[in-house]
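Run log, item B.
One chain of 410 residues. Sequence copied directly from the ordering sheet:
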Amino acid sequence: MLRIFEIATRVIAGVLILISFASRPSVQASTFKVLYTFTNGSDGGLPCCSSLVLDGKGDLYGTTVSLSNCCNSGAVFELAPGGNESVLYSFPNGSGGSEPTALVMDKAGNLWGTTIAGGISGGVIFKILTSKDKEKLIHTFEGSPDDGCAPEGAMVVDNSGDFFGTTFGCGKHGFGTVFELMPNGTESPLYSFRGGRDGLYPVAGLIIDSQGNLYGTTQYGGVIGPCSDGFGGCGTIFRLAPDGTKTELYKFKGPPGDGYRPAGNVIMDASGNLYGTTSWGGRAGCFADEGCGLVFELSSNRTETVLHFFNGEKRDGSNPSAGLIADSAGNLYGTTEFGGSSNNCNGANGCGTVFEMAPDGTETILHKFKEATDGANPMGGLVADSSGNLYGTATYGGAFGYGTVFEITP
């Protein structure tokens, strides 16, 4: 049975923030509401691959990878509780970065994030001064061999104010890095993935425990042989100690009994067990029988248990691109990019789902996206307020086809 979760969502100014949000009554049906529909005008469009950030006033912050203004590529936006959306910064598609990914907020309310493109060799680290709506370029990734490139996942902050994150590519071996960003803006790679059994191409962000150990995933590598992507291995879960020692906690084995290509963050419970998703693998079905993905638990003794195999064609969700969050009762919540119905949606069955998984493994679909009315293909995860209301984005769909921000209330 799943335990009560304490999720390290962010660490600020010497204090480890552990959030365990209120559980929703199981007898009450959920209600779905579109909070905002993107037009791809001055407001941006395609809120692609990151979860929202929620502040204490109820303001939501996120990124889009599209902006219609000439020569711009992506934006950071704020959505006020009343539904008023404003663009805090639009990226110039050049040395200042383009296609922003995930955000994290510091204790002063400033937003820190990365772009996957632009800069010198692929991506930058930036800071948004929310009180002034100004952007500050913090670091430009320089690429191999001394730096990473193309960061995709959210950074995490330790109790000294140091940021940690991953890059998809570059580094000493060309397969991605784990990096540290100090408060003074100095960035340095802590680890360069070697490929093969060591793992390669991390796209998810990291979490950090009270001892300063970092935990993350790589999309490929690990067990050599299975999985059909040609990169050798189905993905890994790793731990990186403060002294730089890396430990492989688990190597995914692929279908039919296991998943592959973990793309979302893992989360950790109070006993040190990890929970997450894989985008592919599991039972046959979905995209030429590559599997529809799954939800897993990795115990503190490194034993993996599959908690749920997504079915896709059976009107379950399929192919989750993001990680999970959990409430105080141990229920897990997440999104799937596809599935939910048999209707075609961007080349697959269904436009995606929001799901809940109870401690006994029972899955409940909280919402099935319908594309034109409410959005399609949620690729980012969820964030919750103290009342258990869930917030997220759909990458496509809505009235204009450029995505939505949504709320699911208990």
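Observations after the first pass:
- The first strand starts at residue 7 and ends at 12.
- Residues 1-19 have pLDDT under 50 and may be disordered.
Flagged for discussion on Thursday.
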